[in-house]
Amino acid sequence: MSYLLLVLGFVLLVKGADFFVDGSSSVAKILKVPSIVIGLTVVAFGTSMPELSVSVTAALNGNNDLAVSNVLGSNIFNLLVVLGCCALVNPVHAKWSLLKKEFPFSIFITVILLLLVSDFSVTKVIKGTESFSLGKLGGLLFLILFAIFLYATVKSALASRKEVQDEDYKVMSPLRSGVYIVGGIAGIALGGDLVVDSASDIAAAFGLSQTFIGLTIVALGTSLPELVTSMVAAGKGENDLAVGNVVGSNIFNILLILGVSAVITPITLDVTAVYDTFILIIASLVVYIAAISKREIRRSEGALFLLVYLMFFVYILIR
């Protein structure tokens, strides 16, 4: 039964993402807002819903390992696998505004996360035997930064409307666009839940740990909306939507999901979470350098990202 639900979850994710991209792109054109802005907000939020659901539920149940490993695993997956696969479909072009503002901001907040989860103590990290924590104060800081990010993005959207006012667009009606977005979100949310639940059941049956499941199975399951949505967008030439979705989702995951989770209950971690946060920073820098070097991520770089993720997967499998 778990295998049947897994397949059904994948179908819902694929069709939901397809509807969501079409509806979101249409809304962007109706409102005369660049696709990059929609990708950073509406699409990023929609595709981050599975992470939010899993992490908040884990926090409420006191299963903090799953909450944090889900976010860290999802963000690493988004950067290396989602953008890697998109680049293989179509070389991914990145707008200068994204490389100048949102992408560096995502790296900045990951560095803040590293400082917070390491308790600002290099000695504790080197010893590796003590526990670490992300407290309510840290969660509140993330929520404040999230509010600032949303404000800045909306302000940018309003300013950008003037730049695209005279462009001619073929769009769906507002009602149909809304139906596509709502239907897409429903498919993504339900599909993500089915994939995560069934995959976790299958993994647990093989005796795998919660941390491993969080970094791999659950991270993969909750990142499938980002993967499918971004690949569909890339296939349709909506590269701005694809890159904006990944960067926006990573920002949402850290600021909103970890922020809400930590405010609900302080998150206790072991040293491996600190290592994984450091790996996320390295992955972010690698992708950023590749994107900014020629303002695009080429197919060869996409293949390299997938290879790096494979190495990370082997690392968490044997540690």
TrEMBL record:
Keyword set includes Lipoprotein: no
InterPro entries recorded: K/Na/Ca-exchanger (IPR004481), NaCa_Exmemb (IPR004837), NCX_ion-bd_dom_sf (IPR044880)
Domain Sodium/calcium exchanger membrane region stretches: 2-153, 179-316
Subcellular compartments: Membrane
Topological type in the membrane: Multi-pass membrane protein
Main location: membrane
Transmembrane feature ranges: 71-91, 103-122, 134-154, 175-196, 202-221, 242-267, 273-290, 302-318
Keywords: Membrane, Transmembrane, Transmembrane helix
Highest rank taxon of the organism: Bacteria
Record-linked NCBIfam families: calcium/sodium antiporter
Protein name: Calcium/sodium antiporter
Organism in which the protein naturally occurs: Dorea acetigenes
